[in-house]
């Protein structure tokens, strides 16, 4: 055997370095050598031979069944050093609960009980996603589950037991089918039963659901997701200890039926715990209890009782006035005990005075039916409701009941703003959040703001459950909603005031709630028979004060609508209250709730229509996944950049893009950036924002809608005449354009003037002169016969001119207005005419030359529409200097589609791009001779075209100087010239 153990395994010599332990950073174990088991099988060893190092663990277990679920309690195998340790298993989910207590006898006047609940990710086979790959601070769910365990076990510790106790519950494994919170509560009860800590248990904790009107005991997570009731009930054999409810407007009658079903089911947990404690439990230890001697108590009572009664019988005292008066009484008793030298009385003075206060208040309520503030037992404190007090916010409300005041605000966000949950069970996120804050100033105290507070988390979750039932479905209202509840003043039941304020704030934000939700707290004052411990007499109090909560037996918070209950939380102080009394409290709670709902509905009864300046906006768009990937960018960088620049929130799912903005301006900015990246479906009449990427003589190309390009024709730049594209748009300029259609090749046509208002001062050109229909375009280079026929059909095609020399000139082939009308048009734009010599100059206020929109909007003629494709080639040939002049001679009827036009120049100065105007007379040189006309050089690099006229001279030579007039501009900005005959 030794030889086998010491023999080097030949396989280890061939392991690459990258697969060795050192390569992976593991610590060296056994001097870096891996040990191997002996080759002898354990089955070959003699059964009688003792095996060294073997330890037999004595375990005890109990099995039972509740609600068709098999449950096992086991102790003795895990956490043996703990005072009490139990593993509770339900199917494949296991929870460990342990109990430990301190041995010292510290001087204190309260029970320092700590309950911790942990859900580590190993329980579901997952490594945490945090940076350190470890679980961090307790999550909200862990705090809530800890409170769920604490609330039923705390009342069962004996009075005067002030030793430190810690209960820790940890989930060992989870199959996702069962919620471990109920299992942890029952395991903690069993662990306390096994420990030596004095405790009045056991308790049973059960969950009840309702599916299609049928109650379900211990529902699974799948069943709970379709249930309209989530009831957690804890009890001893004959009394109720804790109730926690989330429901969808369940009636009081059905709720009572669920409670009466839950009690016998919860009792089934008790006997297995008792049997397990009998087999493996420890003997209860004799702990020293902090008790008050009868003599000392009577002395303090005689000193303080009458002054305390005087304070409590005066209803004019407010909360702080009453507190100051009671504190003064305590100081007076303290001085009396100091004079007597009673050290024992001084040690227990605060606790004893508090006991005297409790006796006085409880006796007056039971015997006289009088409360501290003078109200009847079923009377609700005065109410004050106000909504919209912070108009900049999405929604806000201020709710006051008595001295309790709460400010609630609503913020709406994108679906991506939903809170991510790392729980072992349940949904992975939630879109409705209510955050409750209890600052120190609300009770006029000095304190420090820390992290998550158990009380704040518990109260906020209760109000969240109450309001969740009336929210619209996610399909109808996809926003993420956050309510902030800030307690401004506290005198009892701030969590229920949060429910009322939160409901009004939701209405104020425009969320379509089904019903208003209100809540209030019901208290109990009872008189107990000392011999039997049974309740002899009791009184139910509606809408309790903070003092009545402290001095009473119960804080029963009930929230709901007119139709039913949506949330309940019951906390008690004695060791249980009969279920009959609990069910009796539902009636007064409903009566008080209806009174509060009436006040809330008078303030706001329907969702408010928000001001456009502050109301949030949500847009859901459909895109392909490829387009969404372009939007997100590498590692989401592009999406985050848009959010940072605009302030909007963007959520991306499969084929869906959701944008949420706090107002309309932010929404427009976000949509604009999204459109630049992935675009939208193009619709005729839709307005899009784009960037000019190319400027041509005939228009500009604009990139918009996620990389698509469209043509902004010169005729669509403005309602006013435009002679040059660059005067209106420039490279890189951002424009809002309307899609006006597509051409036969599918190219997108855009319009700038369609987004601009038409000037009111301009006269309608169609009333002054005949204009070619918008669907046609005058063909400048059409055949002479065609033009003559068209002119004969249309009659007089040009308006009469006032200048005689102009009358003697030939009629141009383009339909234009007379020079006088053009001069008048120029005067309207601030241009000064210099007479018949044609010299004009632009005014400083307006240097742009404009042509009538009726000319710039002309289209192809019906006769020559089929030749449009060849027109561009013809004009390119016209303005070129090559020798291929005969190439397009046969292309009669082509339309000029290219060229450049310049602004006005005078005959005395060299021509420049800013000087050419309609009606201007200049001297031009013949640059080229074409079959249909001439290309004329106007100087300064500007060239125009002259078309041969019927019966006119056609014998010209290159270089001839001709007196011409600028008759018009073609649709592409080329100057169209006519000869001026000299007198």
Automatic annotation (TrEMBL):
Per UniProt, which keywords does this protein have?
Answer: Nucleotidyltransferase, RNA-binding, Transferase
- EC number(s) in its UniProt entry? 2.7.7.8
**Start and end residues of each stretch annotated as Disordered:** 788-809, 826-910
Q: Which PANTHER family match?
A: POLYRIBONUCLEOTIDE NUCLEOTIDYLTRANSFERASE, POLYRIBONUCLEOTIDE NUCLEOTIDYLTRANSFERASE 2, MITOCHONDRIAL
What does the similarity note say?
Belongs to the polyribonucleotide nucleotidyltransferase family.
Q: What NCBIfam families does the annotation carry?
A: polynuc_phos, PRK11824.1
Q: Any idea what this protein is called? A: polyribonucleotide nucleotidyltransferase
């Amino acid at each position: 055997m030794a030889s086998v153990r010491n023999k080097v395994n030949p396989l280890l010599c061939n392991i690459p370095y990258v697969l060795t332990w050192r390569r992976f950073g593991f610590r060296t174990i056994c001097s870096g050598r891996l040990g191997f088991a002996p080759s002898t099988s354990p089955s070959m060893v003699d059964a009688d031979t003792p095996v060294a190092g073997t330890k037999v663990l004595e375990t005890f277990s109990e099995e039972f069944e509740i609600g068709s679920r098999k449950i096992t309690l086991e102790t003795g195998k895990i956490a043996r050093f703990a005072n009490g340790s139990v593993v509770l298993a339900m199917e494949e989910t296991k929870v460990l609960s342990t109990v430990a207590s301190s041995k010292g006898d510290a001087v204190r006047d309260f029970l320092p009980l700590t309950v911790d609940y942990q859900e580590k990710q190993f329980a579901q086979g997952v490594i945490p996603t945090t940076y350190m790959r470890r679980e961090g601070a307790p999550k909200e769910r862990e705090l809530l589950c800890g409170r769920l365990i604490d609330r039923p076990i705390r009342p069962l510790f004996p009075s005067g037991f002030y030793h430190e106790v810690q209960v820790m519950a940890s989930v060992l494994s989870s199959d996702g089918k069962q919620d471990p919170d109920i299992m942890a509560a029952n395991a903690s009860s069993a662990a306390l039963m096994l420990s030596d800590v004095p405790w009045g248990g056991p308790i049973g904790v059960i969950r009840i659901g309702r599916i299609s009107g049928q109650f379900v005991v211990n529902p699974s997570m799948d069943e709970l997701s379709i249930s309209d009731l989530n009831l957690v009930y804890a009890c001893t054999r004959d009394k109720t200890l804790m109730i926690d409810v989330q429901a969808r407007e369940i009636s009081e009658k059905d709720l009572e039926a669920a409670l009466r079903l839950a009690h016998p089911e919860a009792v089934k947990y008790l006997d297995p715990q008792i049997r397990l404690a009998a087999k493996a439990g420890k003997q209860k230890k004799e702990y020293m209890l902090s008790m008050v001697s009868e003599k000392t108590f009577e002395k303090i009572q005689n000193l303080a009782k009458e002054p305390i009664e005087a304070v409590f019988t005066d209803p004019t005292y407010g909360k702080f006035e009453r507190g100051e008066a009671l504190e003064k009484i305590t100081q007076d008793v303290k001085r009396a005990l100091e004079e007597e030298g009673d050290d024992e009385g001084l040690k227990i003075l605060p606790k004893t005075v508090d006991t005297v206060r409790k006796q006085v208040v409880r006796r007056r309520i039971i015997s006289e039916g009088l409360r501290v503030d003078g109200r009847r037992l079923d009377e609700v404190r005065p109410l004050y409701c106000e909504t919209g007090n912070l108009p900049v916010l999405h929604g806000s409300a201020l709710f006051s009941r008595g001295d309790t005041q709460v400010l609630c605000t609503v913020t709406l966000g994108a679906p991506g703003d939903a809170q991510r949950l790392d729980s072992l069970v349940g949904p992975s996120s939630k879109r409705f959040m209510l955050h409750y804050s209890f600052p120190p100033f609300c009770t006029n105290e000095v304190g420090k703001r820390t992290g998550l507070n158990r009380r704040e988390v518990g109260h906020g979750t209760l109000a969240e459950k109450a309001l969740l039932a009336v929210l619209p479905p996610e399909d109808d209202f996809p926003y993420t909603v956050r309510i902030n509840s800030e307690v401004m003043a506290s005198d009892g039941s701030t969590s229920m005031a949060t429910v009322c304020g939160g409901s009004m704030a939701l209405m104020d934000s425009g969320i379509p709630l089904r019903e208003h939700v209100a809540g209030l707290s019901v208290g109990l004052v009872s008189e107990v028979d000392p011999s039997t411990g049974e309740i002899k007499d009791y009184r139910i109090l509606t809408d309790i004060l903070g003092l009545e909560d402290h001095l009473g037996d119960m804080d029963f918070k009930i929230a709901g609508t007119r139709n039913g209950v949506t949330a309940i939380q019951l906390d008690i102080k004695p060791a249980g209250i009969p279920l009959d009394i609990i069910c009796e409290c539902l009636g007064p709670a409903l009566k008080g709730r209806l009174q509060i709902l009436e006040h809330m509905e008078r303030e706001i009864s329907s969702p408010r229509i928000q001001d456009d300046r502050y109301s949030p906006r949500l847009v859901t768009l459909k895109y392909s996944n490829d387009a969404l990937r372009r939007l997100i960018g590498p590692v989401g960088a592009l999406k985050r950049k848009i959010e940072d620049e605009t302030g909007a929130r963007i959520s991306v799912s499969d084929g869906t893009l959701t944008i949420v903005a706090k107002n309309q301006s932010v929404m427009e900015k976000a949509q604009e950036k999204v459109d630049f990246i992935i675009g939208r479906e193009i619709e005729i009449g839709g307005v899009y924002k784009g960037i000019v990427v190319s400027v041509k003589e005939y228009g500009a190309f604009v990139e918009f809608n996620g990389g698509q390009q469209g043509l902004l024709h010169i005729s669509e730049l403005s309602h006013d005449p435009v002679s040059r594209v660059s005067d209106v748009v420039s490279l890189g300029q951002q424009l809002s354009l309307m899609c006006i259609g597509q051409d036969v090749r599918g190219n997108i046509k855009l319009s700038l003037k369609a987004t601009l208002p038409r000037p009111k001062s301009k006269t309608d050109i169609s009333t002054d002169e005949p204009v070619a229909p918008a669907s046609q375009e005058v063909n400048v280079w059409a055949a002479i016969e065609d033009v003559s026929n068209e002119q004969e059909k249309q009659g007089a095609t040009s308006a009469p001119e006032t200048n005689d020399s102009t009358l003697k000139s030939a009629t141009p082939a383009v339909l234009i207005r007379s020079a006088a009308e053009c001069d008048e048009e120029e005067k309207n734009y601030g241009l000064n005419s210099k007479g018949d010599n044609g010299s004009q100059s632009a005014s400083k206020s307006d240097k742009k030359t404009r042509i009538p929109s009726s000319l710039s909007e002309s289209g192809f003629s019906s006769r020559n529409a089929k030749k449009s494709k060849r027109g561009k080639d013809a004009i390119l040939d016209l303005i070129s200097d090559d020798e291929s002049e005969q190439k397009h001679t046969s292309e009669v009827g082509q339309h000029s589609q290219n060229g450049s036009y310049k602004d006005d120049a005078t005959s005395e100065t060299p021509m420049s791009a800013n000087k050419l105007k309609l009606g201007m007379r200049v001297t031009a040189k013949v640059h080229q001779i074409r079959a249909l006309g001439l290309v004329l050089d106007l100087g300064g690099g500007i060239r125009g075209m002259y078309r041969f006229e019927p019966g006119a001279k056609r014998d010209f030579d290159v270089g001839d100087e001709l007196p011409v007039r600028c008759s018009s501009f073609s649709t592409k900005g080329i100057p169209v010239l006519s000869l001026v005959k000299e007198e």
